[in-house]
Design goal:
Blueprint lengths: L1 H25 L7 H22 L3 H19 L4 H30 L3 H6 L3 H25 L8 H25 L1
């Protein structure tokens, strides 16, 4: 039960990052709709994930649906060229997928487990993986915002605090894993 809570929390954090990135990268068509656009992206992605997790285990089909839905949302609510909207929809899912796989693979090598075992595992290692993947996804989206360049982007105090907290929690979880495994 507690591990399900961590998984749901990680899902909420991931889609908060998705929504934040889409709104910052593309910007709403109407400035006053900033929060509305964020909530639409966040809620639809959460609903899709919860719905799809009950019906299928294959991430590929869900990824295509999520990319398509985010693209349609961006067409209606956000500024930018069609290419930018398609890019943002793809880059979020591709980044999340690559980060997740690489962190699962790395932790799997360190703990002598396969990726499949890592996905099904419920413990400190899984918790560490969740923190690592969300922290890296957050960092990648911030780097992409910085690369975009037409709007200078600097980490705010709250973002630095978030990064610091994620780092410290990840470090403590990592220490806990090594104590358990030794």
């Amino acid at each position: 039960m507690i591990w399900n809570i961590f998984e749901y929390l990680a899902t909420f954090v991931e889609y908060a990052i998705y929504a934040d990135f889409m709104v910052r990268f593309l910007t709403p068509k109407k400035k006053e709709n900033n929060i509305f656009c964020y909530l639409v992206i966040f809620i639809i992605n959460i609903a899709l994930t919860l719905m799809f997790n009950h019906f299928m285990n294959y991430e590929g089909v869900f990824g295509i649906v999520r990319i398509s839905i985010n693209f349609v949302i961006s067409l209606f609510l956000l500024k930018g060229t069609v290419f930018e909207k398609l890019f943002v929809s793809f880059i979020l899912d591709i980044s999340a997928l690559m980060i997740s796989f690489l962190s699962l693979e790395t932790l799997g090598i360190l703990t002598d487990r396969t990726v499949e075992e890592m996905i099904e595992f419920r413990g400190l290692i899984r918790l560490l993986n969740l923190f690592i993947t969300k922290a890296l996804l957050f960092t990648v989206t911030r780097l992409l915002l910085r690369i975009k360049g037409n709007k200078r982007y600097c980490f705010s105090l709250s973002e630095w605090i978030t990064i610091g907290i994620i780092f410290v929690l990840t470090m403590f979880i990592g220490l806990g894993i090594f104590r358990v495994d030794l």
